[in-house]
Specification:
With 292 residues, the chain is an alpha/beta fold. The chain contains 10 helices and 8 strands. Helix 1 runs parallel beside helix 2 and helix 5 crosses helix 6. The two termini are 32 Å apart. 45% of the residues are buried.
């Protein structure tokens, strides 16, 4: 078995990561990665830049995205798409509409945060400056960074506890069946991201998974920060029982106060190269089915 290192869940400044696509690729090269996937939230704008940087550094970059979805009472279920055409017209259109909504939502959040800051006798945040720093899809982590830069909080957690959670505005989510269809229409495969963050109840998770498989789900992110080694083994067995592929990633955002690094998540999390092979095989099968 190859020992080549991979990381199939990385974020850049095009969503809520700290570093640009080129910087993330350079960091991945320095960390010894051979294959990575840029999976920004509801955004594919960084993929072309990552592909160019990957060619320069000798790293394979897989196109990816992380969609915010919902199903019944379950909100913010994250769905990873891999290997799709990131210039697909419908995909680009849907994501643009989603980003437009999110920009409006985050402007509302900043307005509410600024009201709280005014009550505290503090200067307001500049939304335009936050938007410029995001260089893509604005997320609450960008607002948290602005609060830290202004000296109003010491870290990311304090920003959320004191300002962002109390001043939140309801998010918009893709229905998960529509999100799976969208990824498939663009030629990719759909993988459920960090399943323990959906629910930690094993029976509940398996019941949900059966429903998602009927919708066309292709895989499960078994290697993730929400489980220990025993939890990873359980998720791998769960995936095999439902004929799903297994993937994994660090979910790296580049936060200064995080222990997560490229190629290494919480604890001893490392992602085996076999996950890349499984993605390739699933893409091959899907394309063969579509062309048959």
């Amino acid at each position: 078995m190859t020992t080549q290192q991979v990381d199939l869940h990385l974020h850049t400044s095009c969503s809520d990561g700290r570093y640009s696509p080129a910087e993330v690729v350079a960091m991945a090269a320095a960390a010894g990665m051979k294959v990575i996937a840029i999976a920004d939230h509801d955004n594919v704008d960084g993929i072309d830049r990552a592909l160019c940087a990957g060619a320069e550094h000798g790293i394979e970059v897989i196109s990816a995205v992380e969609l915010s979805t919902q199903w019944q009472d379950y909100q913010d279920i994250h769905l990873l798409g891999y290997g799709f055409d990131h210039h697909h017209v419908e995909l680009v259109h849907q994501l643009a509409g989603f980003r437009e909504f999110r920009a409006g939502r985050n402007q509302q959040i900043v307005t509410k945060v600024n009201s709280q800051l005014a009550e505290e006798g503090r200067e307001p945040l500049d939304f335009e400056a936050i938007a410029a720093s995001a260089a893509g899809t604005i997320g609450r982590p960008h607002i948290a960074l602005a609060l830290r830069s202004a000296g109003y909080v010491q870290n990311h957690d304090e920003a959320f506890d004191r300002y962002l959670v109390p001043n939140d505005v309801v998010k918009r989510f893709f229905p998960i069946d529509e999100a799976i269809r969208l990824i498939h229409a663009a030629g990719g495969i759909a993988v459920l991201a960090h399943p323990p963050y959906v629910t930690r109840n094993h029976g509940e998770l398996e019941a949900l998974l059966e429903t998602f498989v009927e919708m066309g789900l292709d895989g499960l992110e078994a290697y993730n920060n929400g489980v220990n080694q025993d939890g990873t083994y359980w998720l791998i067995n769960l995936a095999r029982r439902h004929d799903l592929i297994v993937t994994g990633g660090s979910d790296f955002h580049g936060s200064e106060d995080s222990t997560i690094a490229i190629g290494r998540g919480v604890g001893r999390l490392k992602i085996p190269y076999t996950c890349v092979d499984e993605i390739r095989s699933a893409l091959f099968r899907r394309h063969a089915e579509e062309n048959s």
